[in-house]
Amino acid sequence: MPGYLNIGWAKRFSSIAAKIRLLRIRRLYNKGKWEAARKYALNEINCPFNNQLSRSIIIRSYWNESKWGRVISLAEKWPELDTNGYKVRAIEKNAFKTATGKYLEDLTSREPEPVSFAQSSWNETDLLSNWYQEDTRVWLRHPWGWTYWDMPENYDIKHTHPSLLELVMETLLRPFLSQVKSIKTEKRPDGKEISLSYSGGADSSAAALLMPEETLLAYHERSFYSMINHENQHQLFQVWNDIKKRSILTVPSNHELIRTHHQKPIGFSTDYAAGSHLILLADHLDIGHIAFGTPIDNTWLNKGLEYRDFSLSNHWIYWSNRFAHAGLKLELPINHISEAGALRICEQSSLNESINSCLRGKNGQGCGRCWKCFHKNGPLGRPVDPTSREIQTFLMKRPLRSAQHALWAIQVQEFEHLVEHLAPYLKEDLSWWVQIYEPGLKLISEQLREIIKTNTMKYLSMMDQPYLLESVNLFAPD
Ligand SMILES: [Zn+2]
């Protein structure tokens, strides 16, 4: 028999054998036997047939075991396998260990606990008994661990109305725990003061500029190491101080970690979790209005794609009543303008140079390569590289993310030639997208409506009727 045939058979045999070995590894993996799957996969990392899949299984098995340090070092070793962003996500999961700048391997991520109440367990029958305070730190025991807020001096949770504590629990735990959806407390009498959950980005800065000057601006600060740095925000707060003589109240908290107990990335549990610090402060500061900088894109448009009558939506009816029970008016002071309108307001203000929504920027500058830079910084004339991988990926997505705004951003930056596949959506002039949608003003409480209308008209013009906004229906299936 000629030699080449022997080689052919040998190759064929070893590829079949390799497939059988891989099948066994996959079976163990699919049964959740991470350690055993990994043990066999380790034998395969140099096998020409199985090297990629076995390495991927090793990374994923460590991921499933929450061994973030291992995930990070292997994702660094085999970057070609990290298509799911395991490294970045593991760094976030690993938050507390990386505060020192080092990865500690094989320790599961640990969230801090109170000193005196560490033994207290979750009480599912008396939900409000899960609140504690140690010095200025307020603790919430939840079924998966502890969450805290660092409150101002003299704050006392005992003087906080139960309906406020109940509302905070709903904003944080609602997606994961049905018990928090039922109201058991008495209604809180309405407070007086006006506040805004202020993030320092363009939307909430526009909201701050439209609201009365006495509005309390309060920033939720992620209290742990993550990919987000707060540098740009703190520079902006300094400018508020210098130019407008207003200080921003900052409340550090780790509540964005709650979602990570449910296989979700760090972030807000619900739209209103971003205001949990203000809800907690409501009695301390006699707050009666809590505002969020939510533009048309997320109110009158559904996912930025399709018009809906937001005033009749379940979301608005539910949450505005829910806040009212806690003596709070839920205010959406930029629901009548788009993200584009918000940008134009910021652009005309003395804060413009210091407002930058890019989360990866440094020294007050954007990175120029992320999606935020594309649709927030680019339209302000700041440098953007539309060929960056992230921007290209977003532009190719179907449906386009925050579609109406993204189309406008393409048009103002004259990037049409880069997105020929979007040509049918770019035929009409989209300048109406920057104008005021008057019906939105009705959602704002009477107390604030006139001043917000007057202030908005200093920056933007009214949208003509019939409103083009109401005909938006992008990327609808044929
Ligand atoms: Zn950026």
Topology record:
Blueprint: H1 3-30, H2 34-42, H3 51-64, H4 68-77, H5 86-93, H6 95-98, E1 131-134, E2 137-142, E3 145-150, H7 162-173, E4 193-197, H8 202-210, E5 216-222, H9 231-244, E6 249-253, H10 276-281, E7 287-292, E8 301-302, E9 306-307, H11 314-325, E10 329-331, H12 339-347, H13 371-377, H14 389-396, H15 403-413, H16 446-459
Parallel strand pairs: 4-5, 4-7, 5-6, 7-10
Antiparallel strand pairs: 1-2, 2-3, 8-9
Zinc ion is lined by residues 358, 360-361, 366-367, 370, 372-373.
What does the model show?
There is one protein chain. The protein has 478 residues and is an alpha/beta fold. It folds into 2 domains: 18-98, Serine Threonine Protein Phosphatase 5, Tetratricopeptide repeat; 193-471, Rossmann fold (3-Layer(aba) Sandwich), CATH 3.40.50.620. The protein contains 16 helices and 10 strands. It has helices at 3-30, 34-42, 51-64, 68-77, 86-93, 95-98, 162-173, 202-210, 231-244, 276-281, 314-325, 339-347, 371-377, 389-396, 403-413, 446-459, and strands at residues 131-134, 137-142, 145-150, 193-197, 216-222, 249-253, 287-292, 301-302, 306-307, 329-331. The strands form 3 sheets. It has a 5-stranded parallel β-sheet with strand order 6-5-4-7-10. α2 (34-42) packs antiparallel against α3, α3 runs antiparallel to α4 and α8 crosses α12. The chain is globular and about 80 Å long. The protein starts with a helix and ends in a 19-residue tail after the last helix. The model is unreliable at 1-5 and 96-110 (pLDDT under 50). It binds zinc ion. Zinc ion binds next to α13.
